[in-house]
Amino acid sequence: MGAQKSIHAGKAKIDVNVDFTHKLCASLMLPPLSNGSGSPLSLIIGSLCIKHPNLFGGSEKLDVSLDKGLYDSNVLLAYRRPRPQWLAQQSFVLQHSISPEIGVHGIPMDNFSRSASGGVNLSRLSVGMDLNEPASSKWSSTTSLKFEHVRPMDDNGRSMSRDLDGFPVTCSGSPHDSMVVLKQESRYAKANDRSFFQFSLQIEQGIPVLSKWLIFNKFKFIASKGVKLGPAFLLTRMTGGSIVGDMAPYQAFAIGGLGSVRGYGEGAVGSGRTCLVANSELTLPFTKMLEGAVFLDCGTDLGSAHHVPGNPALRLGKPGSGVGLGYGLRLKSQFGHFVVDYAINAFQQKTVYFGISNLAS
Predict the structure, then answer these.
(1) In 10 A of CB 119, how many CB atoms?
(2) How far apart are CA 128 and CA 147, in angstroms?
(3) Are 121 and 101 in contact (CB under 8 A)?
(4) Are 310 and 167 a contacting pair, CB within 8 Å?
(5) Cα angle value 228/231/236 (rounded, 5°)
(6) Whether pLDDT at 165 is above 50
(7) d(CA 309, CA 319)
């Protein structure tokens, strides 16, 4: 229920992808985020990508992409200059996104199995530079320096500095936060015919260029291990992180939902300055295209929810820790990977997840 098209205009390439499948999934599993009925176009999701491989005749690359969801949007402009392969590759990036802030301010519903809108949306503008270091056989790294401007909005698009309960939604107390962020991400990957191991470490440092700009240090790690067990495959993953210094509520680690602890809504387990999430999944092939899976997820904020400004998790009654287990199906086709998961949380509430990923180009 979608369309994809590539158009060549001179040396530029335009990729267009319009998808109607999300409308069906949304009607089955997502609550409305606002009271407005919206236009028919608001029910369409899709993407538009324009690539120019030789902008000024010196192999400069320009990428412009637009992604639109039911309730979010993202515009990205990236300009890359050619450099020798042994030097870090530079990219100048301008990005603007609008998305509902469900993970921290979302309201848990139906015994924490889903999260409704808390009336907070984030408009983010960032501009800066990415440096991609030359990759070794197993290690790769990316360094970025960016200015970020974050403006919380209500469901009508108006700026806001406090949530529906009157608590601040920014660190500065004004309707927006500004910061300069230095980010370093290092990745390690090792694989053979029977197993793989991946590790990623992200460190962010807020630089106090001006006195009112945020000063913080944040780190996050992800470690994944996969092993073949006969025809089956066991995947385990551990995710954790912490933040110290200045902090806005939207910077908290949200726990719960698809990709975190299944059986819970997005952020319905909790949100804190610190988090730890563990996932394990065993898949067994039925056919070449169809796999079955059983999984167990657990996560905790390690008691750090009360350190988040305004205590949004405690005010919304989030438990702070949770366990989810369930089973599902994975279908691989030329159109993409389709995922259906059935999960139950510690409150005996059942949740069904639908997903589509890795769409073929």
Answers:
(1) 21
(2) 6
(3) yes
(4) yes
(5) 35
(6) yes
(7) 17
Query: Tokens in use for 338?
Result: 């389709």
What local confidence, expressed as pLDDT, does residue 19 receive? 53
Burial annotation 281-307 (CB, 10 A radius, 16+ → b, else e): bbbeeeeeeebebebbbbbbbbebbee
- Of the ranges 26-30, 109-113, 215-219, 340-344, which one carries the lowest mean pLDDT score? 26-30
Instruction: Name the pLDDT band for 332 (thresholds 50, 70, 90).
Output: confident
Q: Above 80 in pLDDT, residue 104?
A: yes
Residue type, 250: Y
Token output for 232: 């089956």
Give this prediction's pTM: 0.86
What is the spatial distance between Cα 213 and Cα 133, in angstroms, rounded to a whole number? 28
The predicted-structure confidence for 32-60, as pLDDT tens digits, reads as follows 544 444 566 666 777 888 888 888 877 88
At residue 299, the 3 state secondary structure works out as strand
Distances, alpha carbon 263 to alpha carbons 128, 131, 167, 239, 347, in Å: 38, 38, 29, 18, 9
